[in-house]
């Protein structure tokens, strides 16, 4: 007998909840913010909208389904199942934070603060949840298949991300490594830099676009579903021992980037989550390219 679908509601602690947890009471949190020229009412109102949206989404889950919730900070310890339908209630970035832990489950993004969030990934309102959940298990749900990026280390560590993967020093010091294509066509170059960023078409609305604009790059930004990535080296330093000839490029299904660590400790993290990263030491090799996994985002 097959299991009933399970709705997994992903959310994150609100700024208001964090403030009251830190300062003890609403009044003390209000005093703290007022001393810095801010009002707690704006923060409290966003908290109320978020809690209302989460309650509305929860009530829309069919009674025959199973249901659970997971907070952003617990995602790396949560076990998603094949029959799950994942409902992300929050901001665009929360969808990206969730994507790396999935293996093809359909994802519904619910915007808790329309007008404040861009709505690139949280495309729906809480009132749409019931119809979208029915569609998600219909057999052929309407969904965008978004390209993801992956880093695979030679010790089998693997990391995926929806927007981008950044590889560099955990202390934001100079990262030293050898960089080149994952083949014999071009010799790797020894580099010293602030790190390397590899981004997708979804990431082209964020950090990747920032680097692309800064360089006035002639490379075309990829689309969210396109099997193409762009990569940039951040602040490469020229010296007698390090070069700057390989500082940007694009990757397709048949092309990957290979980086060999020449520092005591580098990390690779995805979508801004440094707490869940690959830890790499001297001599290790990591390969970066398009992931086999894609994000199925309901439309």
Can you offer a commentary on this structure?
The protein has 299 residues and is an alpha+beta fold. Helices cover 21% and strands 31% of the residues. The chain contains six helices and 18 strands. The protein has a six-stranded mixed β-sheet, sandwiched between helices. A six-stranded antiparallel β-sheet has the order 7-6-17-14-9-10. A hairpin with a 7-residue loop joins strand 9 (175-181) and strand 10. Helix 1 (15-23) packs across helix 2.
Helix/strand layout:
Blueprint: E1 6-11, H1 15-23, H2 26-34, H3 40-60, E2 66-71, E3 84-90, H4 92-99, E4 106-111, H5 129-136, E5 143-146, E6 149-153, E7 158-161, E8 164-168, E9 175-181, E10 189-193, E11 195-199, H6 207-215, E12 229-234, E13 248-251, E14 257-261, E15 266-270, E16 277-280, E17 285-290, E18 295-298
Parallel strand pairs: 1-2, 1-3, 3-4, 4-18
Antiparallel strand pairs: 5-18, 6-7, 6-17, 8-11, 8-15, 9-10, 9-14, 11-12, 12-13, 14-17, 15-16
Overall mean pLDDT score? 94
Count the strands?
18
The assembly state of the depicted protein chains is single chain
Strand order of the largest sheet: 2-1-3-4-18-5
Distance between the termini: 30 Å
* Helix-residue proportion: 10-25%
Amount of beta strand: 25-35%
Structural class: alpha+beta
Radius of gyration: 21 Å
Largest sheet: 6 strands, mixed
SS element count, helices: 6
Order of helices and strands: EHHHEEHEHEEEEEEEHEEEEEEE
What spatial form do the alpha-carbon principal axes imply? globular
Low-confidence stretches: none
Summarize the structure.
By secondary structure, this protein is of the alpha+beta class.
């Amino acid at each position: 007998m097959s299991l009933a679908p399970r709705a997994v509601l992903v959310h994150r602690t609100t700024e208001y909840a964090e403030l009251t947890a830190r300062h003890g009471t609403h009044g003390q949190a209000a005093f703290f913010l007022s001393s810095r020229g801010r009002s707690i009412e704006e923060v409290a109102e966003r908290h109320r909208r978020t809690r209302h949206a989460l309650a509305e989404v929860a009530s829309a889950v069919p009674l025959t389904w199973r249901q659970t919730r997971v907070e952003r900070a617990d995602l790396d310890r949560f076990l998603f199942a094949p029959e799950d339908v994942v409902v992300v209630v929050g901001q665009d970035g929360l969808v990206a934070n969730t994507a790396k832990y999935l293996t093809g489950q359909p994802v519904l993004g619910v915007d808790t603060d329309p007008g404040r969030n861009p709505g690139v990934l949280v495309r729906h309102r809480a009132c749409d949840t019931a119809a979208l959940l029915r569609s998600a298990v219909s057999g052929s749900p309407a969904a965008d298949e978004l390209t993801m990026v992956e880093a695979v280390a030679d010790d089998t560590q693997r990391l995926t991300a929806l927007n981008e993967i950044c590889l560099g020093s955990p202390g934001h010091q100079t990262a030293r490594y050898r960089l080149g294509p994952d083949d014999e066509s071009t010799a790797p170059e020894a580099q010293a830099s602030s790190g390397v960023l590899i981004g997708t078409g979804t990431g082209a609305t964020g950090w990747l676009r920032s680097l692309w604009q800064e360089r006035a790059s002639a490379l075309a930004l990829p689309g969210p579903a396109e099997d193409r990535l762009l990569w940039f080296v951040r602040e490469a330093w020229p010296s007698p021992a390090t070069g700057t000839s390989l500082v940007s490029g694009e990757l397709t299904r048949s092309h990957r980037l290979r980086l060999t660590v020449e520092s005591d400790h580098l990390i690779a993290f995805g979508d801004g989550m440094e707490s869940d990263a690959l830890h790499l030491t001297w001599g290790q090799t990591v390969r970066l390219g398009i992931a086999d996994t894609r994000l199925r985002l309901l439309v």
